[in-house]
Amino acid sequence: MSKAIRIHEYGGPEVLQWEDVPAPEPGPGEALILQHAVGLNYIDIYYRTGVYKVPGFPAVLGMEGAGVVEAVGPGVTSLAPGDRVAYSSSFGSYATRRVVAVDRLVKLPDSIDFTTAAGMMLRGLTVQALLRQVRPLQAGDTILVHAAAGGIGLLMCQWASHLGARVIGVVSTPEKAEVARANGAVAAIVGLHDLAAQVKHITDGAMVPVVYDSVGKDSFIASLDCLAPRGLMVSFGNASGEVTGVNLSQLSSRGSLYVTRPTLMSFIATRQALESSAAELFEMVRTGAVKITVGQQFALQEAAEAHRAMESRATTGSTVLIPG
């Protein structure tokens, strides 16, 4: 038998149950992974609460992890038992062992440990997509990043700064403002009150060409107000709730704005795209241009406590669950 965190219904953290599950076996094109670390992401909360629907109950949550290949299925030649691997965007990671499609796995460089990998794959690949593909960032750009002290936010501050951009971070506390500035933000704004006025002051009236917003409902209009004419609103999360009822005239009245709602899978859908994005992420980490901050670790069986910490915004950087 193996162990996993499963849910049998949607709800609060209390629905996360530590249970025995049948030992998985890899089929054609699959590999069995002994997991050393599992990443916790806000999307896991969306699935737990029913904002996003699970395939069926009982369901194992989680989207990323890292570990060692224990066995491979028929026809698999690209991996072998003993290989160190990591993955993202593969549902069902809250488990001690799991099966993953080989074309979703990447070999992990020896220079990156399992805990770091579990705290960087989904976030790191998301940042690569946001900064390098959704809108290729240019040196000299000034950007606004919400939740700048969170797992994705810290990576965005570092990566964007490395590319020569100026980052204005939005955070929830003065302590998190210090964290954002320490990771490359040239300015950090606490809360949403008078956000546009503060951005206008920082940019000498120019505003910003792009806003990266993972907060959602509470920040959407404030984010639009921070954009320069023909600016781009990148909405990629719903931490405060889903954005609904958008009136398109809100875009025209603010200067012919653009809005996009990207999802990582659209940018790593092919094997070539995944390998290319992962290679760039690994190189950024290897050279130290981006430093992965694992702010907190929990035992996998303490997933409910980890969810509570993330929902209360008590976390900084990445949160990693360690299978026992």
TrEMBL record:
SUPFAM superfamilies: GroES-like, NAD(P)-binding Rossmann-fold domains
A GO-annotated cellular component: cytosol
Coiled-coil ranges per UniProt: none
Domain called Enoyl reductase (ER): residue spans: 11-321
Keyword annotations from UniProtKB, A to Z: NADP, Oxidoreductase
GO molecular function: mRNA 3'-UTR AU-rich region binding; NADPH binding; quinone reductase (NADPH) activity; zinc ion binding
PANTHER family to which the protein is assigned, alphabetical: QUINONE OXIDOREDUCTASE PIG3-RELATED (PTHR48106), QUINONE OXIDOREDUCTASE-RELATED (PTHR48106:SF13)
Protein name: Quinone oxidoreductase
Species, as recorded: Lichenicoccus roseus
Organism lineage: Bacteria, Pseudomonadati, Pseudomonadota, Alphaproteobacteria, Acetobacterales
